[in-house]
């Protein structure tokens, strides 16, 4: 049985005041959701604040990215060692916004995944196809290539300590949630692909859905056999919405 995960991705949003409000609320909700892993991934500048506010609760936190290097002359980057020092459990890598706006290739994302894992963080590998790729029927080819780059660098066993987030790019921030059938088929295909390397790893790895997942769509998405929770953008900035999504995960735990 895989423990469901509900993870917020705040992206470039937040103020000291909203971060305080959200972390306080989500800490309480997480304390009441012992059978679900609840986390928020915050802009780096807020991670210390999240640590101060959430320590002692069941709420975990993470970063939205992670550098390949641990230290040195890499202006603007955040090292996995620093993130670990500030109590991060997770590091998102390969979000489509980073792949798109920062030209991160599959190989760069794999190196970030390795850097996070080697330094004690749980990488959350984001994968997913564009609308054109979806229309061309290439969804699984894209997802497999994104995963294969990580397997080539880190080995299949790396997924014993990692999470995959399937996030169709056409669904992110658009309000166009993938239907439960579409998402389940892709998640199943991803798990079957992982099975060709290791059945045990494939059975254990949590595969989250992300892309306009909200309080309305979460219950049916999370009831699918291969969907183990969600990576949540916009709705993780609203107490009522994120709380309802956690409730949906609890119902399927
Ligand atoms: C995301 O960016 O990871 C995401 C899932 O965003 P949204 O929920 O806003 O579509």
UniProtKB/TrEMBL annotation:
Q: Could you say which EC number(s) this protein's record lists?
A: 5.3.1.1
Cellular localisation = Cytoplasm
Task: Identify the catalytic residues.
Answer: 95 (electrophile), 167 (proton acceptor)
Any one Gene Ontology MF annotation carried by this entry is: triose-phosphate isomerase activity
Q: Which Gene3D superfamilies match?
A: Aldolase class I
Similarity comment: Belongs to the triosephosphate isomerase family.
Q: How does it assemble?
A: Homodimer.
What protein name applies here? Triosephosphate isomerase
Q: Which organism is it from?
A: Succinivibrio faecicola
């Amino acid at each position: 049985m895989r423990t469901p995960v509900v993870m917020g991705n705040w992206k470039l949003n937040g103020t000291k005041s909203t971060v305080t409000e959200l972390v306080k609320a989500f800490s309480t909700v997480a304390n009441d959701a012992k059978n679900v892993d609840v986390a928020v991934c915050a802009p780096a500048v807020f991670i210390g604040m999240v640590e101060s506010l959430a320590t002692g609760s069941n709420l975990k936190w993470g970063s939205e990215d992670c550098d390949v290097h641990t230290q040195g002359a890499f202006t603007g980057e955040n090292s996995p060692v620093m993130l670990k020092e500030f109590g991060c459990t997770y590091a998102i890598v390969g979000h489509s916004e980073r792949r798109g706006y920062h030209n991160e290739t599959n190989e760069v994302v794999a190196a970030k995944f390795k850097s996070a894992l080697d330094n004690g963080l749980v990488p959350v590998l984001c994968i997913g196809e564009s609308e054109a790729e979806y229309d061309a029927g290439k969804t699984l080819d894209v997802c497999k290539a994104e995963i294969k780059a990580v397997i080539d660098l880190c080995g299949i066993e790396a997924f014993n300590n990692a999470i995959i987030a399937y996030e169709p790019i056409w669904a992110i921030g658009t309000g166009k949630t993938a239907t439960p059938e579409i998402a389940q088929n892709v998640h199943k295909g991803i798990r079957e692909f992982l099975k060709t390397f290791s059945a045990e790893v494939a059975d254990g790895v949590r595969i989250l859905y992300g892309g306009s997942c909200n309080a309305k769509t979460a219950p049916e998405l999370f009831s699918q056999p291969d969907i183990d929770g969600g990576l949540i953008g916009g709705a993780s900035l609203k107490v009522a919405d994120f709380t309802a999504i956690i409730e949906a995960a609890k119902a399927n735990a």
